[in-house]
Amino acid sequence: RQGSELAGWAMGRWTYEGIDLNHNFADLNTALWDAEDNDLVPHEFPNHYIPIPEYYTFANATVAPETRAVIAWMQRYPFVLSANLHGGELVVTYPFDMSRTYWKAQELTPTPDDGVFRWLATVYATANLAMASGERRRCHYDDFTRFGNIINGANWHTVPGS
């Protein structure tokens, strides 16, 4: 009822070591976009699997043990769809979460299969009673009800490594 600012939206977001788990994954978007710009996709740079950058696997990289565990799990059991849930705004964001123009804080940055992600987001948002309620609270100054409680992640705020 208080909204995320007053209810402690950041509680549990950082590890004991001070790593923000919400932003701790490797930036795979930039590698994809660079390959697209150089006409390397899909023959030389397949866009269905982008490997974790080598620098990210070094022992001294700032990578939380939780993130390393998720990476190991993903490499052992490849999958094509995932979701993460955490407190804060009642909105479904869908990829990409990072804006393609590196200096823009907000930019519509759809994936090639944007329609599928928009459909999945809409199905979840309309089935979630708290999100679908007209009495729902707002977070910060954003009112996502006018968008059906869904938004392209980068069009809300860019998050590299999400």
TrEMBL record:
<dbReference type="GO" id="GO:0006508">
    <property type="term" value="P:proteolysis"/>
</dbReference>
<dbReference type="GO" id="GO:0008270">
    <property type="term" value="F:zinc ion binding"/>
</dbReference>
<comment type="similarity">
    <text>Belongs to the peptidase M14 family.</text>
</comment>
<keyword id="KW-0645">Protease</keyword>
<keyword id="KW-0482">Metalloprotease</keyword>
<keyword id="KW-0862">Zinc</keyword>
<dbReference type="InterPro" id="IPR050753">
    <property type="entry name" value="Peptidase_M14_domain"/>
</dbReference>
<dbReference type="GO" id="GO:0004181">
    <property type="term" value="F:metallocarboxypeptidase activity"/>
</dbReference>
<keyword id="KW-0479">Metal-binding</keyword>
<dbReference type="GO" id="GO:0005615">
    <property type="term" value="C:extracellular space"/>
</dbReference>
<feature type="domain" description="Peptidase M14">
    <location>
        <begin position="1"/>
        <end position="162"/>
    </location>
</feature>
<dbReference type="InterPro" id="IPR057247">
    <property type="entry name" value="CARBOXYPEPT_ZN_2"/>
</dbReference>
<keyword id="KW-0378">Hydrolase</keyword>
<dbReference type="InterPro" id="IPR000834">
    <property type="entry name" value="Peptidase_M14"/>
</dbReference>
<dbReference type="Pfam" id="PF00246">
    <property type="entry name" value="Peptidase_M14"/>
</dbReference>
<keyword id="KW-0121">Carboxypeptidase</keyword>
<protein>
    <submittedName>
        <fullName>CPXM1 carboxypeptidase</fullName>
    </submittedName>
</protein>
